[in-house]
Amino acid sequence: MTDPLYIPAPDNTGTTTLRRFTYQEKIAARYVIAMLGDGGGVLHVTGEHIEDVTVATAHPAGLPAEQWNFMQVKTKDDRAPWSLSDVIAKGSLKSLWRTYQAVRGHGLDYVLTSALEGHLDPADSALTALTHGKGADHPDCLSRVSKHLKADTDKIRDYLSLVRVMPLPRREHVDDKSLAGLAELAPQVTTGELRAVYVELMNRVHDAMQGEAGPGWKKKLGVESPSEALLRKRLTAASVHDLAQRLRRPDHVLLAAYSDRLDVVETSLVRKLRRGGASQGTIQEAQFLRSQADEQRLGEVALGVWPADSRVEQDLDTRLRFTATRVTRRHQERAHRPADFIWDDLLQEITSTAGDIDRRPLYAKDPLLLMGRACSVSDECQFGWGVASGEV
Prior knowledge:
Blueprint: H1 14-17, H2 23-36, E1 42-49, E2 51-58, E3 66-74, H3 84-90, H4 92-103, E4 109-117, H5 125-131, H6 139-149, H7 153-160, E5 163-168, H8 171-185, H9 191-209, H10 217-221, H11 228-231, E6 234-236, H12 241-247, H13 268-275, H14 280-303, H15 310-331, H16 338-357, H17 367-379
Helix pairs in contact: 2-8, 2-9, 6-7, 8-9, 13-14, 13-17, 14-17, 15-16, 15-17, 16-17
């Protein structure tokens, strides 16, 4: 037995009372963000089972078993640094003691962490010893914790060898630090998109902490037990795969082989280009870029990355249409092959203004993809490519 989800929780009231507390969720989210970036080898994060947050990481020695971090998260309103007396008064060590009694003997490699909002008192040597996992070697710490827990010193010594104390960002700073972590993972993603990902991430953490992480996790995780109710408290890489895709959007797009992307169908776009006297090379470029842009859009829609708000897409098309019609007007009096002149001029115009046109960005501000999207706009009869002499 290697998974704490099989171990009955000594106190399961946290799931019910969590609705009043969001700080624990934000701390859990920090580990989910680490999982998104594969930071520290985080495998999964479980909320409100045995402890407030349980983080499983890959074993540093490369062993198949996970390492488990059972975290008791405590907050306080005043900004005074934490002392060992504060930690004892808040009941953090008592909760971890219950956890210790519940999980020992189950063959787990684990630590017990008292995670505290704010700073620690550097002058408190007993607390400092706990931060380094040396509480069992500190006589004052050992004596005070033994008295607090009313337990034999030898048992407390073994318990304290597993206890760690860790300071956490204060509640007014934790969101900014998490957003900074996301930005470090995905520097090419806009601030607005990062905030949208963070909001969605917090929603999923909230659901997991209340045991509502979505149906069917047993099937997704490929296990028959533990119970569905417990698995709904766990977030894995699969749980946030779509968010990882949103963060890993490329800052450039690779175009496929030219010969593989030509569309043999005579679309409205092709008919308009022919009417404008476009050369065969221009028509082939338009077909190719149109298919590239369509494929990019469909791929991101499938990944859940494409904006659900249709106004974002409409804004891009409007900007492309304004740009294209302005260029078309400059060349509409040309009698010979106006479409070729419009094509070259439009590509140059889009290249120089890609950042202003593709503000989201939907197409990585790539001028060629934006040119392909412009072809889609033209295909919808929103602008033409001029009329060559002899054409009606």
